[in-house]
């Protein structure tokens, strides 16, 4: 079901990446990431897990940074290939399961993952695998969110409803109904099978990463407020709680 979800989303997600490339978002993303890995000595081998249409390879690739992108779905890799060709960017792309990669031990200086961990059947297994392929001293940068937590946590539900009402009143926008059984039954079914749907995050991730040998260096909740601004984020109906984690091996 997860593979089908991302396959169906490939075209829409590709359009979102086009929008990010056309706006100043890409520069903010680039500066944010480079600041988090500025102490790593180059040239760097960077792995983008769940690369989708290839946003991180597009903005990060340089003579000092070689990017590899992997994704579970052929459709996403095809979209990434198109974009890399259009922007004349050289990066390696593979269809691959991030929970069981084919990379050798200690290959990458940095691993980046955006909006993927929440869908993984076994995120602890994935984190263990990423620890294996990360070099000693390497960095793991995770950007993720809790799209369904308002269905399980009363305080999260209260905050979600307040933001939903604010967005409707201020911008006349209906937010995406994550996990709503009546209006979004497919997403409701996805919510039921994803392991992290009801977990308190990023606390769960911090605990799991630490147990596997990572050192958690930074946790930043609502990181998008720093990247695009809170009001601009709300103006596009983006109200789900998101977070950034930086960890080291």
TrEMBL record:
One of its GO terms (biological process) is methylation. Pfam families: Methyltransf_11 (PF08241). Residues 47-142 form the Methyltransferase type domain. Keywords: Methyltransferase, Transferase, Ubiquinone. Its EC number is 2.1.1.163. The keyword Methyltransferase applies. InterPro entries: Methyltransf_11, Methyltransf_Superfamily, SAM-dependent_MTases_sf. It comes from the Bacteria. It is an enzyme of class 2 (transferase). GO terms for molecular function: demethylmenaquinone methyltransferase activity; S-adenosylmethionine-dependent methyltransferase activity. This is Ubiquinone/menaquinone biosynthesis methyltransferase ubiE.
């Amino acid at each position: 079901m997860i593979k089908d979800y991302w396959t169906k989303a490939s075209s829409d997600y590709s359009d979102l990446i086009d929008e990010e490339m056309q706006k100043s978002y890409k520069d903010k993303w680039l500066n944010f990431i480079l600041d988090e890995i500025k102490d790593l000595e180059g040239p760097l081998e960077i792995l983008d897990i769940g690369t989708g249409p290839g946003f991180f390879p597009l903005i990060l690739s340089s003579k000092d940074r070689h990017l590899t992108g992997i994704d579970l779905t052929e459709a996403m890799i095809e979209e990434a290939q198109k974009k890399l060709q259009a922007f004349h960017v050289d990066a390696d792309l593979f269809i691959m399961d991030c929970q069981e990669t084919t990379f050798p031990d200690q290959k990458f200086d940095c691993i980046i993952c955006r909006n993927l961990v929440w869908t993984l059947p076994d995120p602890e297994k994935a984190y263990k695998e990423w620890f294996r392929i990360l070099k000693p001293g390497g960095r793991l940068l995770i950007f993720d969110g809790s799209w369904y937590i308002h269905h399980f946590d009363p305080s999260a539900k209260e905050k979600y409803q307040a933001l939903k009402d604010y967005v409707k009143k201020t911008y006349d926008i209906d937010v995406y109904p994550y996990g709503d059984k009546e209006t979004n039954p497919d997403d409701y079914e996805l919510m039921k099978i994803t392991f992290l749907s009801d977990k308190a995050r990023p606390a769960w991730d911090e605990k799991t990463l630490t147990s596997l040998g990572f050192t958690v260096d930074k946790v930043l909740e609502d990181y998008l407020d720093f990247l695009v601004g809170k009001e601009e984020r709300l103006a596009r109906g983006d109200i789900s709680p998101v977070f950034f984690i930086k960890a080291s091996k």
